[in-house]
Amino acid sequence: MTSPAPATGALSETATGPVVEVRTLRKSYPGPRGAGRKVAVEDVSFSVAPGEIFGILGPNGAGKTTTVECLAGLRTADAGQVRILGTDPQQHPEAIKDVVGVQLQEAELSPRITVREAMRLFASFYEDPADPDELLALLDLVAQRDVRFSRLSGGQKQRLSIALALVGRPRVAILDELTTGLDPAARRATWDLIERVRDSGVTILLVTHFMDEAERLCDRLVIIDHGRVVAEGTPAELIEQVDAERTVVLRLAAEDVTRAVAALDGLPEVSGVAAAGRRVEVTGSRRVLFAVVQALAAHDVVPDDVATTARTLEDVFVHHTGRPYEEPAADAITKGARS
Ligand SMILES: Nc1ncnc2c1ncn2[C@@H]1O[C@H](COP(=O)(O)OP(=O)(O)OP(=O)(O)O)[C@@H](O)[C@H]1O
């Protein structure tokens, strides 16, 4: 592993070097009632290339938010290095402020402020802000321009928080738990939007609990568990590396079920066959689908339907941690107050 270049105050303008670098980051918090320290981030390293949507995926309390808070200069790391465009956010917070847009969890605005006023307020923090009207158009908030924050829907609040994160024309946007609490249609609309933002030239660091979100959106990602990176790569690479069992689900004519089960049971590629009515579930190795089709053909059984279950990032998590991934319900994530 190479070490990042020493931090400079000057932001790197190179298009090819990493936009974000995190090396052996460690961060702990004081324990409750003075009881030792709680390690939130034990050992996290990754780097993000220009124009990527890079995901930080992990269960509750894995250390995701702490990691991006160190990157955004909101927390001081105990050890390790973080760089944004070659600059240390701790040493040069002013330089970082102009290139990083942060949308952290629970962005709270005054309930009475309108969308237009919030945009103006945030634009006033920058010398050369983006055009608020263009951003509102990008984020589909033009019709809500004069609506007060308290009257916006969950999806509209999320979209406003992204608009506010982008108003300083950042090169990097940090988006934390973006789709928590949104209904499925609003989540999908937000995913499309994130791709549009990336296409406009912004590198995106996306913090998420949601496996499907990471799989759908991220070019590359790290999976974090208990403050450590357990896997890193593209979603396809990570899934490909896991040699999980495959499942083939058959729907057969009632009179074919017994014959099919007898034909499939005992094949070297098959580890299990379970029949329930006309449905037969077959598990086995990578070649199980091939073996099932061949065996059925040899016994002249023509299934009404054949489906395979795809492996997902969930299988990747189980493979690396040895336990199931407990994804909270989209609307069930709450955060305690942070110090
Ligand atoms: N300010 C704080 N003081 C004490 N402990 C904290 C603080 N912030 C976070 N922690 C603890 O550090 C650990 C990592 O928290 P962090 O919020 O970084 O994880 P996360 O992966 O973002 O989790 P979540 O998805 O729930 O936000 C958790 O055990 C959390 O309780």
Write structural notes for this entry:
With 339 residues, the chain is an alpha/beta fold. The protein folds into two domains: 20-239, Rossmann fold; 242-321, Alpha-Beta Plaits. It contains eleven helices and 13 strands. The chain has helices spanning 64-71, 93-97, 115-123, 132-138, 154-166, 184-199, 211-217, 235-241, 257-264, 288-298, 313-321, and strands at residues 20-30, 37-48, 53-57, 79-84, 100-103, 172-176, 203-208, 220-225, 228-233, 246-251, 270-276, 279-284, 305-309. The radius of gyration is 24 Å and the shape is elongated. It starts with 19 loop residues before the first strand and ends in an 18-residue tail after the last helix. The relative contact order is 0.13. Adenosine-5'-triphosphate binds at residues 29, 38, 40, 58, 60-66, 209, 338-339. The site of adenosine-5'-triphosphate has 14 residues, from strand 2 and helix 1. It comes from Antribacter soli.
